[in-house]
Design goal:
Copper resistance protein D domain-containing protein; 161 residues; transmembrane; mainly alpha
Length: 161
């Protein structure tokens, strides 16, 4: 019963974490493109500041519930981490999940906020010179894509196990 509840929380938190970020990337951001440049900046800055804590909590919840399901289930002894197939995949998933969360929380998010608060690139774009803004967005997308790669690997590991 407890493992079923942990699994349910794990899945819901995963949907909120991964799905929420993907919705912002593929749904909200493209919709903001119809706004004037400085409005885009203001909206995205507020959205990121508002949603960051929720995404971080969802990611932490995914990792904690995954950890608890592992130690409460198949990986119930230390040596099982390194001697069983499942233990090796479980520790790999834990490490990748932690790295993905840390990357998104401390590197991707901060890069996005830095880009959104660089006034000069937004003012230049507003005056008809968007090149520096586009370059900055591509740079942030590249940095943030590492978090997406972590999500992809985690989902792949779940399907393999």
């Amino acid at each position: 019963m407890m493992n079923s509840l942990l699994l349910w929380i794990h899945i819901v938190a995963g949907i909120l974490w991964v799905g929420g970020l993907f919705f912002i990337i593929w749904g909200v951001y493209p919709a903001t493109r119809v706004l004037p440049v400085l409005r885009q900046k203001q909206f995205l800055l507020q959205l990121m500041k508002w949603s960051h804590k929720g995404f971080s909590i969802a990611g932490i919840t995914v990792i904690i519930t995954g950890f608890l399901m592992g130690i409460g289930g198949t990986v119930n002894r230390w040596e099982m981490l390194f001697t069983t197939y499942y233990g090796k995949w479980w520790i790999t998933s834990l490490v990748i999940g932690l790295c993905t969360l840390v990357w998104g929380t401390f590197i991707g998010y901060r890069a996005f906020i830095r880009m959104l608060t660089r006034e000069i690139i937004w003012k230049m774009a507003e005056k008809g010179y968007p090149r520096l803004l586009y370059f900055s967005i591509v740079k942030v997308v590249f940095i943030s894509s590492i978090e997406g790669l972590g999500f992809f690997i985690l989902i792949l590991l779940m399907v393999i196990i």
